[in-house]
Amino acid sequence: MRYLVRARVKAGREGDLLKVIENESLGQGSVAEGEYLRNMNDARLCPDQTARWVEVCYCPTPLLEERPYWEEYFDLVRVQDAHDRRKCRDENGTEPWACSDCDCTARLEEKLKETGTPFLKVLRSVQAGNSDCRTRCTSGRYTQRPEPSVTNGGKSA
Asked: Average pLDDT of the chain?
């Protein structure tokens, strides 16, 4: 299944996150190890101060395997299905592991590319300026802060 993830970098963790991204150790030890780096390369920082990305996950509970790795650096704000579960070939059993090469979220991913700013660009800029993402994002147009909620397959967690 594919999930749209919204998360905020934990205060003071920006430098550590950038370091593990740049030395490619983010998610090291996880079965989804390479997915973390792809996610960060594709992530966008949006006006509500959340980094957003589409993540592939085969766990019975969304991000079951990945959650501890993400939560070291992020507060997960929302995790939601990126498309209709009934149409997911892996989820409905018609093609196991289909999500790896599926283009079911191509439109969503294209829309994300046009939203906000590349997350890594902001993270590098923040690190160079020695401020945190919250400070950086609350200056200028990044001021909106919605209430956090995490959903798993449509159910609140």
From this structure: 80
d(CA 15, CA 131): 10
Q: 88-127 burial by CB neighbour count: b if 16+ within 10 A, else e?
A: bebbeeeeeebbeebebbeeebeebeeebeebbebbeebb
Quick one: pLDDT band at residue 157, thresholds 50, 70, 90? very low
- CB count within 10 Å of CB 154 equals 8
- Other CB atoms within 10 A of residue 150 CB: 19
d(CA 25, CA 108): 27
- 44 C-beta neighbours (distance < 10 Å), count: 20
Written as six digits, the tokens of 97 are 């592991």
At residue 126, φ and ψ (nearest 5 deg) are -60, -45
